[in-house]
Amino acid sequence: MKQFVTEESFWELFPEAQIGIVVAQDMRPADEVAEEDAAAIRRRLSEANGAADQHLTSNTISQNEVVAVWRDAYQKFKTKKGARCSVENLLKRVLKGNPVGSINPSVDIYNTISLKYALPMGGEDIDAMDGDIRLGITEGGDSFLALGDEEEAPTLEGELCYRDNAGAICRCWNWRDGVRTALSDDSEKAFLIIESVDPARSADLQAAIDELAKMMSEYLGANIFAKEIITRENPTMVIDE
């Protein structure tokens, strides 16, 4: 059995945070996704790039409320210089007229949700995890190789990150995913995370995980093993048996 565990060190920093989790199992490999479904996912991603404009009221990325709350959040823990919330990176592309393109069906689905709701989102391969996945402040030195990099970049002391027994999974909370647990074309089990630090957006978070679960089921034939919102009062959940 594997669990997702949010540690007290996280809640001490973000007592009102909410983390939406969808666990999708038995996903179709990318090469078995029907072309009509793959095309529908790409269309939804394109629409989400357009929908993201509603969240961008300023041409200065940091002055948009959905980004500003994360800039503030990142001041509360140690980060690598220049690290930014994942949704800021997506919205910045939209702002510059460089829409987020297709990668693979599962990643396209979670980018669609992230753009539409302007909430950071990530996805990990459960089968690649070593034990439970934990979110909390680390003592540093956790092994980590970021997607697209060639050299390891271990975590810093005081950094907030997702990690398992083998090292970090995503650094600086939701900045960059690692190679080791990244979703691939052949992943069967996905741990999908949507984060919110703004209590006023609870309804958006619920809508986001509902739509995410529906898309994973409809287009990838996934069985939704779990769908839950993690809070300080509900800090752990089973993600795999």
TrEMBL record:
Q: What's a Gene Ontology MF term here?
A: phenylalanine-tRNA ligase activity
Question: Entry's InterPro entries?
Answer: B3/B4_tRNA-bd, Phe-tRNA_synthase-like_B3/B4
Residue span(s) of domain B3/B4 tRNA-binding = 68-221
Positions the record marks as coiled coil are: none
Q: Which domain of life is it from?
A: Bacteria
The protein's matches in SUPFAM superfamilies, at most eight in alphabetical order, are given as: PheT/TilS domain
Protein's recorded name: DNA/RNA-binding domain of Phe-tRNA-synthetase-like protein
| The organism of origin for this protein | Parvibacter caecicola
